[in-house]
Specification:
The complex is a heterodimer of chains A (about 170) and B (about 190). By secondary structure, chain A is of the alpha/beta class. Chain A has helices spanning about 20-30, 45-50, 85-95, 105-110, 140-155, 160-165, 165-170; strands spanning about 35-40, 75-80, 100-105, 130-135. Chain A has seven helices and four strands; from the N terminus they run αβαβαβαβααα. In chain A, α1 (about 20-30) packs antiparallel against α5. The model of chain A has no long low-confidence stretch (mean pLDDT about 90). By secondary structure, chain B is of the alpha/beta class. Chain B folds into two domains: about 5-145, Beta Polymerase, domain 2 (2-Layer Sandwich), CATH 3.30.460.80; about 145-190, no CATH class. In chain B, the strands form three sheets. A five-stranded mixed sheet of chain B has the order 1-2-5-4-3. In chain B, strands 6-7 form a two-stranded parallel sheet. Classes of the chains: A alpha/beta (about 170), B alpha/beta (about 190).
Chain lengths: ~170, ~190
């Protein structure tokens, strides 16, 4: 093969897209978010509904619910986080590989909800960094899908290369 | 045997332990000294056919003496009779006999009371906390425990913090006043 193939070639035109690596990585990440379904209360029922045929979260690439945190990208905290459960949730989050995101689904996961009590953690953001909060008690599946789309829009703005290996970028510059 | 006869049999048998009797809307409540509770329950099951223990629960009459009350809800599948037994438990000696030897279901009921109210059950085979974690230092359903909770810390197991009540309408003041006075619709914390 001559070096001509690297220059303009009408045979492969239309099959080549010029883009930035960051944009390509973001595009791949946001369209295959594997959720870790952290179902703790009634929100988990809506989470199941979101995954099933009527609402079909597979349309947005997030249908692969992983019950092993090591295979998951986004943790959906669906339900009331009690103090007894809180550190277990944290431990599961810690086992997820980077990059990882958290969706706080519903009033309880976001703020403790109606449980202003001795037993309930007042929002999972006291333990984990939360990317998207979804209101509702519980939120409808549409709301969860909207939250997922919000997360996708957030991922689009990230700079994975820069964030992942800042020392590498520094060495090159 | 009617309920009246059943109650009469229980009263005659444990006359020296009886503290009071109350009837309200067809429900009979007998109050006994706590020393005899296992015997009374055993008798109720063996002789009076109360084969089903619906529930054991407890109340905290904060500010009164004796402070606690343990309540046994008995039901007979054979005769359809319902009977309520109560035992008073003072704060200083916060324990009562376990009835797990009579009804096995009492096991978890008593664990819950121990967990939430701090009443110990003598002779219980496995008296651990059932809802809160082992090592949680408080008894959250006691009236002097604040609704917002108290901070606690057990490294790597669990922690707890105060919840922000923001003066919500769910603040109650422990007393024997009516519910209306104990729980006004809006009251600010510390008022």
């Amino acid at each position: 093969m001559s070096t001509d193939a690297l220059a303009y070639d009408s045979k492969v035109e239309g099959n080549i897209i010029v883009t930035r690596v960051d944009a390509a990585i973001n595009w791949m990440r946001k369209n295959s978010l594997w959720p870790m379904p952290m179902g703790l209360a009634c929100c988990a029922i809506e989470l199941m509904a979101t995954a099933s045929s009527r609402f079909d979260i597979a349309r947005f690439g997030a249908e692969v619910m992983r019950f092993s945190p090591r295979q998951a990208d986004v943790m959906i905290v669906a339900g009331t986080v009690t103090y007894k459960m809180a550190l277990a949730v944290k431990r599961i989050y810690d086992q997820m590989p980077e990059p990882k995101w958290v969706i706080a689904m519903g009033a309880c996961a976001s703020s403790g909800g109606m449980y202003r009590s001795y037993a309930v953690l007042q929002g999972i953001d006291r333990l984990l960094p939360v990317d998207v909060y979804i209101s509702g008690c519980p939120p409808r599946p549409e709301a969860l899908i909207e939250g997922l789309l919000k997360l996708q829009r957030k991922i689009e703005t990230e700079k994975p290369l820069l964030n992942q290996k800042p020392e590498l970028i520094e060495a090159f510059s | 045997m009617t309920l009246a006869q059943t109650v009469e049999a229980l009263k005659t048998r444990f006359n020296e332990s009886l503290l009071g009797e109350k009837e309200f809307r067809g429900e009979t409540t007998l109050t006994f000294k706590r020393d005899a509770i296992v015997e009374i329950c055993s008798f109720s099951k063996q002789e009076l056919a109360f084969d089903y223990l619906c529930d054991i629960t407890s109340t905290d009459n904060f500010g009164e003496d004796p402070r606690f009350e343990v309540v046994y809800e008995l039901y007979s599948m054979q005769t359809g009779q319902h009977l309520r037994l109560k035992c008073q438990v003072p704060e200083e000696e916060c324990s009562i006999g376990s009835v797990t030897s009579v009804w096995k279901t009492a096991n978890w009921h008593e664990r819950e009371i121990y967990d939430m109210m701090g009443i110990r059950f003598n002779g219980h085979p496995d008296l651990r906390r059932i809802l809160m974690w082992e090592g949680y230092p408080f008894y959250p359903l006691r009236k002097d425990f604040p609704l917002e909770g108290k901070p606690s810390e057990m490294p790597d197991i669990a922690f707890s913090d105060k919840a922000p009540l923001e003066g919500g309408p769910f603040v109650t003041s422990p007393s024997s006043a009516t519910t209306k006075d104990r729980e006004p619709r809006a009251r600010h914390v510390g008022e």
